[in-house]
Amino acid sequence: MTRPEPGDTAPARTWRKPPLIANPMLRYGLLALLAAYLMWALATLPFNWERIGEGLPRAARIFGGGFPPNFSRFDLLLTGFTESLQIAILATLLGVLLSIPFAVMAARNIAPLPVYLLGRAVIIISRSFHPVIVAILFVAAVGFGPLAGILTLTLYSIGFVGKLLAEEIEEIDWGQVEAMRATGAGYLATLYYAVFPQILPRQVGLSMYQLDSNLRASAVVGIVGAGGIGSTLMNAFGRYDYDFAFAILLVIIAVILVSEGVSGWVRKQIW
Amino acid sequence: MLEISNLIKRYGEDEPVLKGLDLAVEGNSVIAIVGASGAGKSTLLRCINRLVEPTSGSIKLNGTEIVNLRHRDLRRVRRKIGMVFQGFNLIDRLTVMENVLAGRLGYVSLFQAVTRRYPAADIERAFVLMERVGIAQYANKRADELSGGERQRVGVVRALMQEPEVLLADEPTASLDPRTSEQIMVLLQSLASELSLPVLINIHNVAQARSYTDRIVGLRHGTMIFDGTPGDFDKEALDAIYGGIEAPEDDTAPPSSSGEREKEAPHDAT
Description:
The complex is a heterodimer. By secondary structure, chain A is mostly helical. In chain A, helix 3 runs parallel beside helix 6 and helix 9 packs antiparallel against helix 10. Chain A starts with 23 loop residues before the first helix and ends with a helix. By secondary structure, chain B is an alpha/beta fold. Chain B contains ten helices and ten strands. At the A-B interface, helix 7 and helix 8 of A face helix 2, strand 6, helix 4 and helix 6 of B.
């Protein structure tokens, strides 16, 4: 075989990627439709250009006020963060522990149908609202403060960890379950020996991820009054302490970077 | 003594997998159950310890009817039936010792099981059995660190921990290399006589079935078509079990492809 030389007599064959939508009418029609929609949306949405014009200097003033960030009220910042951290850790512990029974209930291969439906329902309900909405409800129910935050994030953790854990249980190696049943083991002993060891690495990984995620969410739910650094941040904004607010934001970013690094490292260790 | 009579198993509305099987096993005999894939060997073993629910029929272990037991009674009879699996089915993330002790799960309380506080007699029995099959030095190793042959030994010891009255082995050597699988067959054969335990082995390897068992039972499409000593198991019997007769449910399939599939089975039998 000789290598084909460039510039040989035969004309080079060409190739182009076939278009995603084969029908040209449909292809250009869709593009036109998209353009028309964008024009319509921009024209009808109530953009108040005057207000935006006024707001720009104000935004500049806020950001200008943020510089340099003011760390002078460090103890206030620290109190807020300790509270956030407590909320996140407690909610993660509670949520992860409670997610295990719900995950078992919501795994089709080991739960009878009525139990499965109940477990699925719990998980779907705890996943259907964003934590901020849940936090608003809990603040209304139990008042301002960290308790509302803990309840919110616990529910959030049950939904998330429970769902992923249930899927993990549905994919376990069934042979180990069969082997335990064959020894005459009861239901719970089979769970402990054949199911839990198989989902353990996933469980630890999810818990670390959830701690990370709860830390972030605890700052957000604080804004609606559920305690922690979010409340501190909201107060700082309310009093036009932009430099302090900016300091808080910087610390939040730093904490989340650190927690992400740590959780990533831990997950790698146990996998 | 294990007595199976008129055992029928059908999945849904399909053709039954087992069509009225009768089988009696006594003493410390080693019995090979041979048959092509899908003949019902696995289903037969799993009906005995009710991992699969029989549709009808009777299975008696030392006089106890197994077929209609429920819950606690079922678990009690299961611990008298040891089982060894093709894929070993060890708990990979637990240690060898924990896997072996898992054979006692039918006897100990949930608290003892979870905290691993097994009775001293169980631990002693575990060491004795592990020494017997040569895996005692691995007691604290994770089960997935062992080689295939060693893993199957763990599986055998786990089954023996149950103090079984019968041992079921579902293709115990099919995932092992030829030499290791011989060793496991020797082990099962000698354990059967040492513990005077009847052993039922599903096996594809007809040569091994001939040399390590006392009796061969041949299944085809859910019916027993051979039952005799290894000496009686001749070419004719082999052909009857694995041979090219088309499966009744296969008559719509083109004969060529079906014939090829049937011919493949005896390859590992030589």
